Structure to design on (395 residues):
């Protein structure tokens, strides 16, 4: 029996935990001892029902400063802002992770968006596997710095030189901590991720926000857990499903949907009761709980959401046109990937009018044709067998 450790440090909501369900299921099937070290413990019952494992709180950077996301142009900047900004700070998190590793003595660790845990793991000999969407795992097949320039970063010589400088600064910061710990220095920042024996991308090349990668195993997405059936409001217009949060332009979106006379069912996190009551009516309804997305995909004409990876991938595999309203940088990259394949439209969270976008989603048949084309490309690839794949890794 092996000791299997799954860790999740960065990001929020259900997608990151969902990526770890398959390796945990595989380890349970094989009778291994499993521990999950997670960032958000309160999310676990929604994703991990039926699985047995030990549980610990993950160490992660507290009080992350608010910065303009457009100023973050590469992975090194992301690490410096969201994970560690000084050797003293990083050393504290490394000590915490090393205490976990020393306590649990794992034989294999699955890392889901856990950069600081990977820094701490540098001097350990246990097996290391990366799990996540494209954004969670920067490309390591491009050896030269900087580590993973973002899709929105300018590609001018001057801009790339600035990113290489940041890359070197973050590498030096990490190596200062390795020196204190008596570990060998990392030769380049990409080695942080290249130390893993395998990269398991829970997506398809079509949804990899950093582009298709040669020699990487894409596992697609596992089937969705059963939820209650959607209860659509009465109406004769196109059926539209929304999976949203209470964002800046929400009321303007509700106005546009109402004016378009479509049949709308919305799941909106943290919506006020006053706003919900004001817009509930003929053709527009809200649900307070998650619904069966498999049934939604069979019944909806198009969907609107914030371009979370899991949500985008679910509707991409169903061949549905998507209206993406990203709220942060990773979601923007996912949205741009969809738009680049002509199966989605992009809108912004602070728009004052969504009328044109909603009308285009209702009228443009080319979006559905493109969505169906991408759907077929995804279906040709192996998907839904990630548990079996992780059993092979675990042996």
């Amino acid at each position: 029996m092996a000791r299997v450790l799954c860790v999740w440090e960065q990001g929020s909501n259900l997608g990151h935990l969902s990526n770890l369900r398959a390796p945990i299921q595989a380890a349970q099937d094989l009778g291994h001892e499993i521990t999950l070290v997670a960032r958000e413990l309160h999310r676990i019952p929604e994703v991990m029902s039926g699985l047995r494992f030990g549980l610990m709180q993950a160490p992660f950077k507290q009080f992350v400063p608010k910065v303009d996301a457009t100023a973050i142009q590469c992975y090194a900047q992301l690490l410096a802002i969201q994970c560690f900004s000084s050797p003293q700070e990083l050393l504290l998190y490394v000590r915490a992770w090393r205490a976990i590793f020393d306590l649990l003595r794992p034989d294999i660790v699955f890392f889901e968006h856990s950069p600081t845990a990977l820094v701490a793991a540098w001097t350990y000999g246990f097996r290391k596997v990366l799990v996540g969407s494209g954004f969670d795992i920067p490309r390591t097949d491009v050896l030269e710095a900087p580590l993973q320039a973002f899709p929105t970063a300018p590609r001018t010589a001057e801009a790339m030189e600035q990113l290489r400088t940041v890359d070197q600064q973050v590498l030096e910061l990490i190596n200062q901590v390795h020196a204190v710990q008596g570990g060998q220095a990392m030769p380049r920042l990409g080695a942080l991720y290249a130390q893993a024996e395998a990269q398991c991308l829970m997506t398809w090349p079509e949804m990899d926000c950093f582009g298709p990668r040669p020699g990487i195993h894409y596992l697609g997405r596992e089937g969705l857990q059963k939820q209650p059936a959607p209860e659509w409001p009465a109406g004769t217009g196109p059926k539209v499903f929304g999976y949203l949060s209470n964002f800046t332009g929400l009321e303007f979106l509700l106005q546009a949907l109402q004016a378009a006379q479509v049949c709308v069912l919305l799941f909106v996190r943290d919506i006020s009761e006053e706003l919900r009551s004001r817009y509930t009516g003929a053709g527009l309804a809200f649900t307070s709980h998650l619904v069966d997305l498999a049934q939604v995909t069979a019944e909806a004409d198009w969907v609107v959401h914030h371009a979370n990876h899991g949500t985008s991938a679910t509707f991409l595999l169903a061949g549905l046109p998507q209206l993406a309203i990203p709220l942060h940088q990773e979601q923007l990259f996912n949205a741009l990937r969809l738009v680049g394949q002509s199966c989605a439209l992009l809108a912004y969270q602070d728009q004052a009018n969504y009328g044109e976008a909603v009308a285009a989603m209702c009228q443009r048949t080319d979006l559905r044709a493109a969505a169906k084309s991408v759907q077929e490309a995804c279906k040709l690839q192996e998907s839904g067998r990630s548990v079996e794949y992780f059993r092979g890794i675990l042996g």
About this structure: The chain has 15 helices and 13 strands. The radius of gyration is 22 Å.
